[in-house]
Design brief:
The structure is a homodimer. By secondary structure, chain A is mostly helical. Chain A has a single domain, classed as Na+/H+ antiporter like fold (Up-down Bundle), CATH 1.20.1530.20. In chain A, about 75% of the residues lie in helices and about 0% in strands. The first copy, chain A, has 17 helices and no strands. In chain A, α9 packs parallel to α11, α14 packs parallel to α17 and α16 runs antiparallel to α17. Chain A is globular, with a radius of gyration of 22 Å. Chains A and B meet through α1, α3, α10 and α13 of A and α1, α3, α10 and α13 of B.
């Protein structure tokens, strides 16, 4: 792809996303769906103007990590902490149910082999946090109690998805179940989730100290972006998804984040120094949030369009009865499996429904699973086609369901005085 | 380059640019030089951490077109119009002198063949508008009379450079001098420079009209970025450099741009409608300028670092006397040739010196010339190495000269009451 042609393609993606998003919004369609549909239209499914090229995938991933950085900045960790272990429970249920049901249906009902059945189960585990967050924001529900649970769960869910993928991939390669290797990655990820925000907070303190001495504009933004990219790389290095690093960096740079040594630990050395460094810095957070927005407005749509571009509907044999049966069954499994995750925690019934619905969107991670399985000859082209259909419907339908749910039950779930 | 590794590389580029820029600034070095030096250090010349990869080149070019968009927005066309034909004269002199002198020295003094001699002359013609603009901004001289001339000249200069390159490339391929083809491109470019701002102004009027009905944030920015990318592509399509399209788009979206049908043409149909559409819109321009800045802060440094990365000093045989002689001679030619361009227009003597100095920086376009000549076997690796040395010195030295000049003579050139 030469450079000028690349400019044209990105212009087409950005303007296409905007066009479909805005036109869709007139008809009550969530804008994120408009952007994915723009990808289906512009991509190989229909017009074939945009191909899943390496530079575009890179920009798309840049968009999603910046979006997750913003989600992190916008997350009140103390508010989320009140949800306790609920995000963790929802995430585990949301991975376990689809994996188990997907496996059982593939192995026993569809009569497939062990490894492909496991892979199909794995494809159904991932929640697309990008889509979920966009829809919750659009519905102005991003700061509700159940949204806190869902966002936490979706981040953890992505980590679990990567663990499952690493496990299955190793199994496919060597024929051995590597429990130890998986446990090791899980340990690294756990440590990363503990240390990354503390480290990021320290970096953000240093940035704040040096900013006033800066010789040229853009100091805060470029250092924050550099840090965000480094954390995404580190997350990848230890075997976690990049978005985990971006989320951790954002969490620490948000206006709510502070880590005070509790009163009871008066003997801790440098206690007041630590408290000063780890104190909230809403002024810097506010400026950074303003400066990050233009980057997100520009790059996040590229991500959602590329989700649509990556789903090549031409690879589906629409006349095959087996494809329809299989995708119908798996779609049912993928909806029911994720929906059940909402009921794994003790909440009001409506809150459980909201959580269950918000966990359904699939998107990019499911596609990565399916593509890997296909390229490694673990699943056939027929199964791959069926999975693309499943992912497409479980990406496109939930935003509508969520929107319908909140417009009907939102006021009962959150009586006016409760709304943030 | 996998995606996580790409994040790491870009983090290294952004943070390296900032580090070298800030540290350099402590010692009075223009930040843009710090960024180019960061590229020399990180690139194959020294550490070899950053290679000139396709995605990085793409992001770098994205950075330079956004910078030129901002330069366009910041340019008062009515102020620039007062400089009349001066930018055009300076640009022509700034291309003609280095081309002629470079050719004569190569052909007669160094005894080279016709085509390589022409190519060497061509390599010396291009002014790096990016570097010039950055230095003038840093010295707070971007809005002075001579800066208006230099910015206009540097944009025209880039067009002339592309024309020379197209001409020489065609000559190298076919052995024929294609005057007609070159004249045709020149005509297209001329028409583009007339029509592109008018078209962009119309688009910006439409954006303004639709913005209030937008369903999601970022409408203005994403449409402006999409338009800027399209204009860059169109410029490339007609044979002009991409930055010309970006500059034209920025010019029309800046707060000063308006195109009123003059009073004398009262009979023109739709006169008041045209005047309304083509009226200045400072409120929208102001908001857009704020939102474009974060993109520029993030991407422009990638461009300047990649200029440094592209100059591989390891390709130079430092022990070859011929390389030193040749580059010394050509360096002299490249300085004198561009410097003379300042004296092609009637200005105060100090103004002529300022213009001459500001026209010297080379950078990326010279590199493209040299790389093309080398890859087409028109120039030898020795000549290529000498050209890289010439480009390096004529990129790194002028910012210092300009800074020294303005700190010594700036107050005489612009007595306090004249300063904008």
């Amino acid at each position: 792809m030469d450079i000028a042609h690349g400019f044209l393609i990105i212009a087409v993606i950005i303007l296409g996303a905007r066009l479909f998003g805005e036109v869709g919004a007139r008809f009550g369609v969530p804008t994120v769906i408009g952007e994915i549909v723009a990808g289906l239209v512009l991509g190989p499914s229909l017009l074939g103007w945009v191909e899943p090229d390496a530079t575009l995938q890179f920009l798309a991933q840049g968009g999603i990590i910046m979006l997750l950085f913003e989600v992190g900045m916008d997350t009140d960790i103390h508010h989320m902490a009140k949800t306790g272990l609920k995000p963790f429970i929802v995430a585990n249920a949301g991975v376990a149910w689809p994996l188990l049901l997907g496996f059982l249906v593939s192995y026993y009902v569809l009569g497939m082999d062990l490894l492909p059945s496991l892979f199909i189960g794995g494809t159904l585990t991932a929640t697309s946090i990008g889509i979920t967050v966009r829809v919750l924001s659009e519905l102005r529900q991003r700061h509700t109690h159940e949204a806190q649970i869902v966002i936490g769960a979706a981040v953890i869910d992505d980590v679990l998805g990567v663990l499952v993928l690493a496990f299955l991939y190793h199994f496919a390669e060597s024929g051995e179940m590597s429990w130890l290797g998986t446990a090791q990655i899980a340990l690294y990820v756990f440590l990363f989730m503990l240390l990354a925000p503390v480290f990021s907070k320290l970096i953000s303190f240093i940035i704040d100290r040096f900013e006033r001495h800066s010789a040229s504009p853009g100091f805060l933004l470029t250092l924050a972006v550099g840090h965000l990219l480094l954390m995404s790389y580190l997350a990848h290095l230890i075997g976690a998804p990049e978005i985990l690093g971006a989320f951790a960096a954002g969490l620490a740079m948000g206006q709510h984040f502070r880590l005070h040594v509790p009163e009871g630990f008066a003997g801790v050395p440098f206690r007041s120094g630590i408290n000063q460094i780890m104190d909230a810095n809403p002024s810097m957070a506010g400026r950074l949030a303003d400066q990050v927005k233009p980057l997100i407005h520009t790059f996040a749509p590229i991500f959602f369009v590329m989700v649509g571009v990556s789903m090549n509907l031409r690879e589906i044999d629409w006349h095959s009865l087996f494809v329809w049966q299989m995708s119908g069954l798996l779609l049912l499994v993928s909806f029911v499996g994720k929906f059940l995750s909402g009921f794994a925690v003790r909440e009001k019934r409506l809150g459980q429904v909201a959580i269950g619905l918000a966990m359904i969107p699939r998107g990019e991670v499911g596609l990565i699973f399916a593509q890997l399985g296909f390229s490694q000859h673990i699943i056939s082209s027929t199964v791959y086609a069926a999975l693309i259909l499943v992912i497409m419907f479980s990406t496109l339908a939930p935003p509508f369901l969520l929107k319908a749910f909140y417009s009907r039950y939102g006021s009962r779930l959150h009586p006016a005085e409760e709304l943030p």
